[in-house]
Amino acid sequence: MASAIDPALFAKNLPNLKLNDGTEIPFIAYGLGTANYKGPSSKPFDQKIVDSTVTAIKAGFTHLDGAEVYGNEEELGAAIKAAGVPREKLYIVTKYNPKPLTDKETVEDAFALSLKKLGVDRVDLYLIHHPFWEGVTDEQLQSRWAEVEAIQKSGRATTIGVSNYLKPHLEATLKTATIKPAINQIEFHPYLQHNTANGIDLVQFHHDNGIAVSAYAPLTPLVRAPGGPVDAVYNKLAAKYSVAAGDVGLRWVIDAGIVALTTSGSKERLQKYLPSLSSFKLTPDEVAEISAAGHDTHYRAFWQTTFAADDRS
């Protein structure tokens, strides 16, 4: 397995994805959720999160995916400072955590606090984390999106988007949006491809409307639902390309034109990710083979209480 990044292969196999606002987003991101999730801000500062994030940055990860609800924006900010990489070379993401309507905090209030914790004066991408607050209506989706548009217009968020939105949420938002969401971050992997029995293909809807997709939990078949039908395909292709099965899982996402988020607490694994991922590409037939292998198996790693067990939305 490759131990260093070949610049030519990296540029060829891991280029940036161009968004509908003309900006570009790196195809692979280091996620501050899951393994780095801290939760309530009352928990003490966690140096381990800082150290892991610095390791990721020094291993070549420039796309850093954070969120208010992860409770670790201060740690992400400390890592950005400690890594010593120029700000203009980093792609920093954070997300607004929608509050109950009884809470008087505005999106602007939450965003200003996020910037303070991160120690930066702007982020590259700001997302609404989910559309599932109690009693949500189309009008509320639209008004909150308008607040996010105002933040972009202020220059403090270069690009804006959403997360965990389904087709109805996107349709409602698009009805009044003056700025189209650039991206929707969703759980996406071979066991949750969002193509349902009633004909809704969420990814295709994004393509049709010029909205990019980023995938969290892309390695769910390996880490949360092992033993399923994609394992054999992953292992076969891992042997073919002399990489790990997880690398094949990430390339399946990337080679489908979708941004992939990943994380790890292992320094060794973080250092291997980018050399491995830039050393190969899956063919269209191999992407299709993995898609077909996972199509009839359903597993959702997150938001399980929000969806019925058989809901593939």
Automatic annotation (TrEMBL):
Belongs to the aldo/keto reductase family. Residues 31-293 form the NADP-dependent oxidoreductase domain. The active site is at 70 (proton donor). The keyword Metal-binding does not apply. Pfam families: Aldo_ket_red. Substrate binds at residue 129. GO terms for molecular function: oxidoreductase activity, acting on NAD(P)H as acceptor; oxidoreductase activity, acting on the CH-OH group of donors, NAD or NADP as acceptor. This is Aldo keto reductase. Keywords: NADP, Oxidoreductase. The record marks 95 as: Lowers pKa of active site Tyr. It comes from Ophiostoma piceae (strain UAMH 11346).
